[in-house]
Amino acid sequence: MNLLDVIIVATGTATIVLYSLYTLDQNVAQRFGTDKLYLSIPFVTYGIFRHVLLILSNSDGDPTEVVTKDKGMILSIILWLVSVVLIIYAGGKSL
């Protein structure tokens, strides 16, 4: 594994940790009116892991094409978006 691969994995891991902390922050909960944003963490985790896997397994490809052409990535993004919209606008009450 070369240095760039290590940096990609470390950055992906840091992104997941920081997003998780963001969703659990009390200021964020007050801003959005719900403390249920943590329910979107699995979609972000899957998306980041999927992206890292695709990038590392196909080093010739454009990272932007990986996101726009892979069905797993597209599904992850759509599910994350739908979950965040539902959580925020439902106020987390029905989830």
SSE succession: HHHHH
Round the mean pLDDT to the nearest integer and report it.
89
Beta strand %: under 5%
Whole-Å distance between the termini? 42 Å
Q: Could you name the ranges where pLDDT drops below 50 across 5 or more consecutive residues?
A: none
- Rg over C-alpha atoms, rounded to the nearest angstrom: 15 Å
Distinct helical segment count: 5
- Estimate the helix proportion, in percent: over 70%
Structural class: mainly alpha
Main sheet specs: none
Give the overall silhouette. Answer: flat
Query: How many E-type strands?
Result: 0
Question: Would you mind describing this structure in some detail?
Answer:
- This protein starts with a helix and ends in a 6-residue tail after the last helix.
- Helix 1 runs antiparallel to helix 3 and helix 3 (41-57) packs antiparallel against helix 5 (71-89).
- 9% of the residues are buried.
- Helices cover 76% and strands 0% of the residues.
- By secondary structure, the chain is mostly helical.
- The protein is built from 5 helices and no strands.
